């Protein structure tokens, strides 16, 4: 197979590393800054981010059948957590990360949960 001008031999294992795209100025303004609001949709409900930049559940006919359930669980879990706790940063340094099939923190995240009263 030839992909982007590169010959890929049969049975070669390929992985797409979204971290490269997430750090790209081609796809994001100031990618090195922590800006969670960049993921919000506009008033029309559309996203300004290319949908192919981050697709942990794949896309098309081979998309994970459990995607909607997983996303719903994440949203409900986060809402329940944030109703009971405030999340505060304990450091302004970005956490170190490592690649182990998925990108994950190398050390515990520098946050603490403060119980809401």
Automatic annotation (TrEMBL):
The entry's keywords: Heme, Iron, Metal-binding, Monooxygenase, Oxidoreductase
Listed GO MF terms: heme binding; iron ion binding; monooxygenase activity; oxidoreductase activity, acting on paired donors, with incorporation or reduction of molecular oxygen
InterPro entries: CYP11_CYP27_families (IPR050479), Cyt_P450 (IPR001128), Cyt_P450_CS (IPR017972), Cyt_P450_E_grp-I (IPR002401), Cyt_P450_sf (IPR036396)
Transcription regulation keyword on record: no
Binding positions (heme): 64
Cofactor(s) essential for the protein: heme
One Pfam assignment: p450
Homology family: Belongs to the cytochrome P450 family.
Protein name: 1,25-dihydroxyvitamin D(3) 24-hydroxylase, mitochondrial
Gene: CYP24A1
């Amino acid at each position: 197979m030839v992909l982007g001008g590169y010959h890929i031999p049969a049975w070669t294992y390929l992985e797409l590393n979204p971290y490269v795209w997430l750090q790209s100025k081609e796809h994001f303004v100031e990618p090195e800054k922590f800006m969670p609001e960049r993921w919000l949709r506009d008033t029309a409900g559309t996203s300004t981010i290319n949908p192919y930049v981050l697709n942990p559940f794949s896309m098309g006919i081979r998309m994970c059948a459990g995607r909607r359930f997983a996303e719903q669980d994440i949203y409900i879990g986060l809402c329940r957590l944030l109703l009971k706790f405030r999340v505060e940063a304990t450091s302004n340094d970005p956490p170190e990360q490592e690649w182990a099939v998925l990108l994950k923190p190398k050390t515990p995240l520098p946050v603490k949960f403060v119980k809401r009263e």
